[in-house]
C-alpha cells in the first residue's frame, strides 16, 4: 500500500494545467467617470461604507434589517452559495482516490462432491484517475470559481435589497406627503366651490364659473384616489421586499422627505477601476475565470487518461485464519487509455469551452459598462436634482403668493373665479413636482450608493438561509 500511495503522490505532483493564462480584460469604458472633475482621487471607496452609516433614519434602518432577515430572494441567493459549495466539494473529491473496505465469503465445489470455503477481506481502490494533464484540477478550480461567483451573487442580492428597501421607504414617504397635499388642495377647492356657488345663487357669478369649480374639485378627488392606490401599491412592494408583514412596533422615523437626516457625502473618486469592487462585477469575473479553467479541462481530454485500480487484503480458507500473518497481499492494475476516435466530441467540447469563455468576456464587459452607466446617471442626478428641487421650492413659494393675491382679489370682486382656480391648479401642480423632485433626489443618493458598490460587506450580513 505504501507503494500505491507513493505512486499516487507522484502522479499528483506531475500534473500540469493546460488552461490559458488568465488576464483580466481591460476596462471597456472611460478611465474616469463623467461629472467627477472635483472628485478626490484618493477618496475611500463607497463599498467600505456600512449601510447603517448611510441609512440613519430609524424606521428605514429597521425595515432594511427585517428585509435582510426575511427576504426570499436573499435566501435563494444563500442557498445558491451552498449548492455551489457542494458541487465544488464533489469535484474536489475526484482528485483523491476512493477506497472501500469489505469482507466476503464463498463456497466452491470440488471434485468428489466436496466443497471449499474461501474468505477474503481487504481494501479496494477502483479506477482512480491520476491527473497528469490537469483535467480534474481544472474542473475543481472551475467549480471553486463558481462558488466565488455564487457568493458575489449573494452580495449583489444583498446590495440590491438594501437599496430597494431604502428607495421603497422613500417612495412611501413621498406618497404620504402627496396625500396630505392633495387632501389640503381638495379642502381648499371645496371651500372655493362653496363660495362660487353662493355667488352663483346670488347672481354675481355665472354658471360657467360654478361648473369650472365643480370640475377642479372632481379632479382633486380623482387625484386623491389615484394617490391612495399608488400608496397601497408601494406599501405592498415594501412588504414583498421585507418578506413578512410589517410589525406594528416599527419606529416612527421621519414623516416627510425634508425632515429626514441628509445622506452623507458619497466619495466617488476619479478612476472607474472602483467598479471592479462591485460584487456583480466580481461575480462576472469569477464566471470568466471558471470558463478559463474549463478550457484547460477540455484540452486535457485530448491526452491519454491514466487510471489505477489497486487492492490489498487477506485470503484464507478458514475464517479464523483470515487475519493471520502470511495471508496478506496486494495488487495494482494501472491503465492508460488514449481515445482514437470519438466522432469529434473532444474537439466540439474544446470549441464549446472557448466559446463559453468568449461569451463570459462579453458578459463581463457588459457588466462593467452597465455599472459605469449607473454611476454616470447617478452623478448626473446628484449634480442637477438638488438645483431642480431648490428651483421648484422657489416656484412653490411664488405660486403660493400668487394664490393669496388671487383669492383676495376674488373675494373683493376685482378678479374672476377663473383667476382663482387657475392659481390653485398652478400651485398644486408645482407642489407635486417639488415633492417628486425631492423623492428623485433622495432616491438618487440611494442609487449612487448602490452603483458604487456600497451596502454588501460581510459585517452587514444579518440574513440567514434557514
Short description:
The chain contains nine helices and four strands. With 466 residues, it is α+β, with helices and mostly antiparallel strands. The radius of gyration is 36 Å and the shape is elongated.
Question: How would you sum up this structure, described in words?
Answer:
By secondary structure, the chain is α+β, with helices and mostly antiparallel strands. Helix content is 60%, strand content 11%. It contains nine helices and four strands; from the N terminus they run ααααββαααββαα. The protein has a four-stranded antiparallel sheet with strand order 1-2-3-4, covered by helices on one side. Helix 5 packs antiparallel against helix 6 (207-242). The longest helix has 67 residues, at 135-201.
Structural class of the secondary elements?
A: alpha+beta
Calculate Rg over CA atoms.
36 Å
Total strands: 4
Q: Rough shape?
A: elongated
The helix/strand order is HHHHEEHHHEEHH
Largest sheet: 4 strands, antiparallel
Q: Give the strand content.
A: 5-15%
Topology:
Blueprint: H1 2-14, H2 51-54, H3 58-70, H4 72-93, E1 99-109, E2 115-130, H5 135-201, H6 207-242, H7 279-300, E3 305-316, E4 328-337, H8 345-411, H9 417-451
Antiparallel strand pairs: 1-2, 2-3, 3-4
Which features does this protein show?
466 residues, alpha+beta, 4-stranded antiparallel β-sheet, disordered C terminus
